[in-house]
Amino acid sequence: MAHGCIAAKLASLPVEIRSLVWEFFSMKPSFAFVLGDFCPDKDERMFLLEYDKMILQFHISPTYQHKSWCSVESSIIGGNSRLKRKGGAEWPLQDLDDAMRRGFHKLHYQKMKRVQIDVGAPDHNDPGQVFCLYKKCLDLATMLEHAENDLLNLEINLLDSEQARWTWNRQLQSSIIQHPIEVYELVLSAFSRLRNVKSAKFRIPVQLDPSNHLIENMEAKLELEGPFGSNVAPDGDEEWDDRDIQTEKDLLFMKVDLELDFLHGHTANMMRLDRFSFWYTDKIGGESKYESEYERIIRSWKHLPEPPDRLVQLTVLERLQWRHRAMMIFDPRARFRPSAQERHPSVQLTSNAEDVTSIWNPDDWYSTYHYGDWWGIPSFDSVCVFFYILLPRNAEACRQYHVPFWEKLRKWLSDDN
Hints:
- This protein is α/β, with parallel strands linked by helices.
- It is built from 17 helices and ten strands.
- The chain has helices at residues 3-11, 15-24, 29-34, 42-49, 96-101, 128-145, 183-189, 213-222, 242-261, 266-277, 289-300, 310-330, 340-343, 362-368, 383-390, 392-397, 399-414, and strands at residues 54-60, 70-76, 90-93, 114-120, 153-159, 167-168, 171-172, 199-203, 370-371, 374-375.
- The chain has a six-stranded mixed sheet with strand order 3-2-1-4-5-8. Strands 6-7 form a two-stranded antiparallel sheet.
- The chain is globular, with a radius of gyration of 24 Å.
């Protein structure tokens, strides 16, 4: 059957039936959206999927849930449809890879009425939620930056809830203790690489930025034409130069990572577990997105007009080395640790507990570091973590991995490539 015939038959159905068809294909959003491309006639295509009346909403929660990144909801508003803000579907997404597999980077964002990102306020009693939000927003921004189609209208909303507000005791939440930065600035900075947005709007509680200067500048940056990296300020204005924006993003990334090491609370424990469990993608010593990001940042230092001072560089390198050492010792399958089955008989690992070079599986970490109602990796300043890492048998056993990793760090710092 020709595509035009399929489209004509679908378009002739009542809107309620078309809604059911939409929901049926909700697990494959790219397929549902491209149904409209089967219609050669623009008016018929809009009648079928009503792109110009469609709102796609990404809901980002500050709470951490394993294999739960964000939820996406589509809705139709206005027009002749008897369904108002209905007729769409919902998709719970596990992570960025899940969104890419489902084809969210291929959607027709340039045809939609609006793409809306709703970000919930973090709880000031659980400071790890700030870092959870930051990571989720970074991943979403990465997907949108590399989407096949530019965004027509983007709206980012910072929302208060009954449980949490963006202000506390009438003061802005400050996220990083040693390196103070307002929570909302940290979260919004995740989207600073987006470009070519026809219209960008940040909607925030007025008390966060009464002057609106920061928000206005961020909106203007997202509306700049050309891919990120192509905008170089001729007058040396660092705020509008993509090179300086990237340098600031890299510095913020390292500050967040440093702060997470010693942060307390449930969400911080889970974020450390998440960082360890996704350190590698295939096997120990294999592909690592986490290491690759640090390699890019460290190699860029020598090309900066004002690189970080020597103390900052050493702090970053030494802490990265410390994390690697802790990760190797806490690895559930490491042969130099008691097996997870010995410590917790109920735990069933999905890989060989005695083979440290076996396939890397994040689920092993989540199966192991779950003790009743307690989850995650404790703060690095906790007594149990400190002494466990320094145990002679553990320190000696991981030396074969520790020394090569330090050599790798030195290579990143000294190489000209």
